[in-house]
Write a structure and sequence with these properties.
By secondary structure, this protein is of the alpha/beta class. Helix content is about 45%, strand content about 15%. Helix 1 packs across helix 3, helix 5 runs parallel beside helix 6 and helix 11 packs antiparallel against helix 12. Bound molecules: uridine-5'-diphosphate-xylopyranose and adenosine-5'-diphosphate.
Length: about 450
């Protein structure tokens, strides 16, 4: 039996530890966080994050071999394996501002570990997405003190996607574990591999060196995001021609060398990882004297911002180049369906641009209103957060669909149309709705990468 500790009870730490606790009942798993409110919610049935299936897993293990609290120092004392899952936002000051990772939380954690560990051998597992070579920096901090503990640092990036975290953790495509290339390093990586082997087939557990593991996480996210930016760039070309992006995506995705996933045009990708990781990658390339490679990856982010702006420009242009005093209803605010997370959601710049035009913004989202309020709290203008979707759409001039929640397909659009200002517009930022049907009801429909269906 081992004492496993996870520092950071966020979108990664919480679900990952819940799944480890469920599958490894002989180990004791403790999750700590400096945020008392977050921990209180992990100890209640109102979890701090919305993730389908998560509550059931937490309820199975909590109090048995899964514990949440805020005493980082005490929990570190008798830990054998420590997962570090604290946030590493993009640095907003000084050298590398806007691109590099802000490592202050991460370094504080390294020092907390050094000050408090008492076991003779401790494995520290990097779970946060970090710039390449930070495991090495972690090892140097841990070796710098007077501690009698022998530390081994292992990189084990997490590939779960929000909204499908439980499924992704239960049947991962692969588990990646990067360890030092000496005897101790290999043993540490093997110990972490044994944990996952409780439920993941051995052939899906990949052992690499530390730097390959760290870099693979950045590159996986950069390549997924690159596919979306590629498709989004082509959606613009489709709108100028008579091609249909859904047909193009399907046709290219059937080429097994390309594959069908991550080819859906959108208002722009969001989430806590893609933008941040591409900027890290680009910064890393710059740092290592590869400006062409840095520019190549940075362009994925540029196209993404351009796509969100293009969506906004289309709303402005179609509504006769003036939005002042017009009510625009946002269907969805989360960066994707099935999550309440709004980090880097394209809804945020969209709202900023709409409010900049003096539009009245009405926001609906089934799970993300709490976060949306925080995101928009400093924005000037007329913005309301509405829990009842029909109320949000009542009297609106236009609907902008941002998030592809399943329930939006089931709405009574006849009823909605009757309550909207005419001509009524729908801008479908996800190609999620039934466009022909909406057009027959009377809407002017603007999908992405397809010809618009217009009455006026
Ligand atoms: C991503 C990676 O998928 C995951 O492996 C990593 O661990 C964390 O980052 P996540 O950000 O949670 O996961 O969600 P993901 O499903 O990847 O979606 C990211 C964004 O891309 C969302 O805004 C989504 O709507 C958008 N997207 C996705 C598209 O616009 N088109 C697509 O075809 C797919
Ligand atoms: P992710 O999506 O990577 O999981 P989150 O922001 O959801 O990121 O979670 C990171 C968590 O780490 C937050 O709840 C934050 O309070 C916590 N955290 C940050 N620094 C520390 C620290 N030094 N000790 C403990 N927890 C920390």
């Amino acid at each position: 039996m081992s004492n496993i500790l996870c520092i950071g009870a966020g979108y990664v730490g919480g679900p990952t530890m819940a799944i480890i606790a469920k599958n490894c009942p002989e180990h004791r798993i403790t999750v700590v966080d400096i945020n008392q409110e977050r921990i209180d919610r992990w100890n209640s049935n109102d979890l701090p994050i919305y993730e389908p299936g998560l509550l059931e897993v937490v309820q199975q293990a909590r109090g048995r071999n899964l514990f949440f609290h805020t005493d980082v120092a005490q929990a570190t004392t008798d830990a054998d394996i420590i997962f570090v899952s604290v946030n590493t936002p993009t640095k907003m000051f000084g050298e590398g501002a806007g691109k590099a990772a802000d490592l202050q939380f991460w370094e504080k954690t390294a020092r907390d570990i050094l000050d408090n560990c008492r076991k003779p051998n401790v494995i520290v597992v990097e779970k946060s997405t970090l710039p390449v070579r930070t495991a090495e920096a972690m090892a140097r901090i841990l070796e710098s003190g007077k501690s009698s503990t022998k530390f081994s640092v292992v990189s084990n990036p997490e590939f779960l996607a929000e909204g499908t975290a439980i499924e992704d953790l239960t049947t991962p495509d692969r588990v990646l574990i990067g360890g030092g290339q000496n005897e101790t390093g290999r043993k540490a990586a093997e110990t972490v591999a044994e944990l996952y082997a409780h439920w993941v087939p051995r052939e899906r557990i990949l052992l690499t060196n530390v730097w390959s593991s760290e870099l693979s996480k950045l590159v996986a996210n950069a390549m997924l995001a690159q596919r979306i930016s590629s498709v989004n760039s082509i959606s613009a070309l489709c709108e100028r021609t008579e091609a249909d992006i859904a047909e193009v995506s399907k046709a290219i995705g059937m080429d097994t060398r390309i594959g069908s996933k991550f080819l859906e045009a959108s208002i722009g990708f969001g989430g806590s990882c893609f933008r941040k990781d591409i900027l890290h990658l680009s910064y890393l390339c710059e740092y290592y004297g590869l400006p062409e490679v840095a520019d190549y990856w940075a362009s994925v982010v540029h196209i993404n911002e351009w796509q969100t702006d293009r969506f906004f420009q289309s709303i402005l242009h179609q509504l006769f180049n003036t939005l002042a005093g017009k009510a625009i209803a946002l269907l969805g605010f989360a960066f994707k369906q099935d999550t309440g997370d709004t980090r880097d959601s394209p809804a945020i710049p969209l709202c900023e641009k709409l409010l900049g035009e003096h539009a009245k913004v009405r926001v609906h989202d089934p799970k993300a209103l709490e976060n949306a309020r925080i995101d928009l709290k400093d924005m000037q203008g007329d913005v309301r957060f509405v829990e009842d979707v029909y109320e949000a759409l009542d009297g609106a001039h236009a609907i902008a669909l941002v998030t592809q929640w399943a329930e939006y397909r089931e709405l009574d659009f006849e009823r909605i149309y009757n309550k909207m200002v005419k001509p009524a517009f729908i801008f479908d930022g996800r190609n999620h709705l039934e466009h022909e049907k909406l057009f027959e009801i009377g809407f002017n429909v603007f999908p992405l990468g397809k010809p618009p269906l217009k009455h006026v």
